[in-house]
Write a structure and sequence with these properties.
three-stranded antiparallel sheet; Replication initiation protein; WH-like_DNA-bd_sf; about 450 residues; single chain; Arc Repressor Mutant, subunit A; about 15% strand; Initiator_Rep_WH1; WH_DNA-bd_sf
Amino acid sequence: MKKKKNDSDSSQSVKLIRKSNNLVEGKYRFDIWEMRVFTKMLTMIFPDDEDFKEYRIYLKDVIEDFNLTTDRQAYNLLKGGAVKLMKKEIKIVRDTDEGEKEFLTHIAVGLDSFTSKSQGSYIDISFHPKMKPFLLQLQSQFLMYDVRNVLQLQSSFSVRIYELLKQYEKIGKRIFTLTELKDTLAVADKYPLYANFKQRVILKAQEDLENYTDIRFTFEEDKRGKAVHSIIFNIYSNKTVVEERKQPESNENDVNEEMSKVYDAIKTWEGINLKTINEWLEKYSPDYVLERIETVKKQQANGTKIKNLMGYLQKLMQQEVLFEIKPLANTKSSTDKKQQNLLQTTIEQEEKALESLRISYYENQNAIIEHFFNTNPTVKEHFIESIKLRVDYNKQLNIEENLQRPSFKAAINAKVKEMYPLLFKELDESFKQQETAIKQSLRALGWKG
């Protein structure tokens, strides 16, 4: 039922999917039609929804969204996917105040459909109420991505692997034991032989993500003897797909006059895309947006160096009252106290962003090391033994208590980074780029840090 991809149709309005990390890590297996119904339902949830609704899924929308051809079986396939989804259970392991628990629930309820496929144009269905904590009012520890990344995928396993790796995109690496990965995808019974699992799941996902999503991956096999024990996924931004989505819409009728004016004003800036412009114009008037663009251009003309133009412009969008930033040499000559206060506030906000970035970097380092140690317990023991003689090791405390001490943990981290620098390569590069961008934005404001 797959239609040939039409590039002119690829610029549809952006819809975001939000799932709790626990749900992403859940143990379940869908076929492709169950996955399509599930994905379509996810796009119909709004961030501020407090309860599930009955979601009406039109067959024509599914055909259009997933780029399918219409045939006489289309409605039956949609309905059949919904029926199977209602019977499907999902297993979620989560940490609670009482300890780790295994949660089991059905996913969907209440299917209302036509009895005749000739009449069938839509189905009505809702999520099971027990799914609320994993889909509604998500404030932290959740995955969010553009649904366009999964619409073209013909394998439900490719969708699952995309989500599992997308969570770790900033870290740049994710390690699964083979047993763990098969268990998460619920395929131990389907692909008991590694060769089949590799061909049908991993290599298929690698091809699909390369062709259709904003990330791609390579992988390495960690063997114990002749058997594969773990899969090491190296995760990268898929620049080909990302750049394609930055291009302006080819159909001029879909781009209103205000968006065209804004786009033309900054179309040469790195990082510009219509989604960002649309978000600005939903919040602010065209004059408000264009005024801030003009401010940035004036600052450049006055000699202010702004490397990350889009990042700096985004900050100005959040600033209701504009002030003129003089060239760095003349910053001290500003006489307007209110302008100086606004400038100082902006600098403080950027400094907080920098501090938050550094904290996140440290936490991501810890996450990499923790996962590395969990999959390599022998290596962990070796590291601990090798630094027991250090002065910052407290012999009156046990190993786990020492590991909670910042100085000891820092010593462990430094040793792991020294011995296994490739584990942190992507994380370090990403951090450096973001840190540089924030510092450049700060220095454009006259920051001396």
